Amino acid sequence: MEVYQTLGFQAILGLISHIIFIGITFYALQAFRLEQLFKKGKVFQIQLIYILLSIAVGSAVSNFLLDISTWSKQLPYIFS
Questions:
Q1: Distance from C-alpha of 14 to C-alpha of 21, rounded to nearest angstrom
Q2: How far is the C-alpha of 33 from the C-alpha of 66, rounded, in Å?
Q3: Residue 61 to residue 19: CA distance in whole angstroms
Q4: Torsion of CA 2, 7, 8, 12, to 10 degrees
Q5: For every one of its 80 residues, what pLDDT tens digit does the chain have, with 9 covering 90 and above?
Q6: How far is CA 40 from CA 6, 30, 34, 35, 51, in A?
Q7: What is the pTM assigned to this prediction?
Q8: Crossing angle of helices 43-74 and 2-29, rounded to 10°
Q9: Can you tell me the distance from the alpha carbon of 55 to that of 13, in angstroms, rounded to the nearest whole number?
């Protein structure tokens, strides 16, 4: 049962991490004026770019931190 609990905990941690970092990235992207790169009246496309960039960057950062966490837990196996 311990294996299933560990897998479940990692799944929850991954979901929460992705959601938090996607939200942080979305907030950070609001500082850029991406609307100047688009034609006037293309509000939906601008919002879509913000969402897609947030997902891409937030997921990448989250994956990086989750990988670092996993690898740091595996370091003791070098010395055993």
A1: 11
A2: 30
A3: 11
A4: 140
A5: 688 888 899 999 999 999 999 999 999 999 988 777 777 888 888 889 999 999 999 999 999 999 999 999 899 888 87
A6: 50, 18, 12, 8, 19
A7: 0.83
A8: 140
A9: 17
